[in-house]
Specification:
alpha/beta; Rossmann fold; 8 helices; 7 strands
Length: 233
C-alpha cells in the first residue's frame, strides 16, 4: 500500500504531539496463524503505516472526496458503519489492538468497503502524516478513560491533541466525541470549549451513531453516555 505515489509534499510542516507515556493500554490477544496471515496480507493492501512522510490523501484513495478519521475504533463498529453509510466519502480508522484491526480489514475485503483504510498503531504517530485542513470529520468514541487519578495524564483528549485535530479539520469540519465516563466527558468538553476555532458542546445521541461494545457495556453498568459535537470555525 505504501509508496512514493501516496506521499504529499516533503516539506510539509509536522504537528507532533510528544507524550512521555502511552494513551492506551496494550491488550494482548494472540491471533490464530490463519488470522495473523490475513492481517499481514490485508495491511499490505489496505493499511497505512502510522509513521512516515506526509500523505496525499487524494492519491491514497484514488479520488478527491471528504475524509473522516475514526480514532481508536475498538472492535470496529464505528469505522465499518462510517464507510458503509458514506460511500462517497473516505474513512481512515486507527486502532492499536489486533482483533479490531482484523475485523475492519475483513469488512474492507469481504463487504467490500473500498473507501476505508486502517492504521494499525498509535494515533499520535499518525497525526504527522495528515495534511492540514484535510479532514471533514474526526470521531473519538469512548477513548480509554484511565479512571485512576494518577493515570489521567494518559488520557488522549487533552489540549495538545485537540489543537492538532482542529488544525487537521477543514473549515466547517466536525469533531464528534463520546464517553460514558462523566468526569472524562466534562474534561473533554472543557478542553474543546477552550480550543480556538471550535464551537459546539453537548448534543443528543445521534441515531446514526452505532452502538459499540464499549457503549453497551457502560449502559449495562448504568452509566450515562455524553455526546459532544464541535465544528471548526
Amino acid at each position: 500500500m505504501e509508496g512514493d505515489d501516496l506521499l504529499g509534499p516533503a516539506d510539509q510542516t509536522a504537528r507532533s504531539v510528544d507524550r512521555p507515556t502511552a494513551t492506551y493500554k496494550r491488550r494482548r490477544r494472540k491471533l490464530s496463524a490463519k488470522r495473523q496471515a490475513e492481517l499481514d496480507d490485508w495491511l499490505g493492501r489496505w493499511g497505512l503505516p502510522p509513521s512516515g512522510p506526509p500523505l496525499d490523501l487524494t492519491r491514497v484513495f484514488g479520488r478527491d472526496a471528504d475524509v473522516y478519521l475514526d480514532v481508536g475504533f475498538g472492535h470496529g463498529e464505528s469505522t465499518i458503519d462510517l464507510a458503509r453509510r458514506l460511500p462517497d466519502a473516505d474513512v481512515i480508522g486507527v486502532e492499536v489492538h489486533d482483533p479490531g484491526v482484523v475485523t475492519v480489514l475483513d469488512a474492507i475485503v469481504h463487504n467490500p468497503l473500498p473507501n476505508a483504510r486502517v492504521v494499525h498503531g498509535d494515533i499520535l504517530d499518525f497525526l504527522d502524516r495528515l495534511p492540514a485542513a484535510s479532514l471533514t470529520g474526526v470521531c473519538v468514541f469512548f477513548p480509554d478513560p484511565w479512571p485512576k487519578v494518577r493515570q489521567r495524564h494518559r488520557r488522549l483528549v487533552k489540549a495538545d491533541v485537540v489543537a492538532v485535530l482542529t488544525d487537521l479539520l477543514r473549515d466547517g469540519g466536525e469533531f464528534h466525541l463520546a464517553s460514558d465516563i462523566a468526569d472524562y466527558a466534562a474534561e473533554m468538553m472543557a478542553v474543546c470549549d477552550a480550543a480556538p476555532g471550535l464551537r459546539g458542546g453537548i448534543v443528543d445521541r445521534p441515531a446514526w451513531r452505532p452502538l459499540t461494545r464499549f457503549e453497551r457495556r457502560g449502559l449495562n453498568d448504568g452509566r450515562r453516555v455524553t455526546d459532544l459535537r464541535y465544528r471548526r470555525r
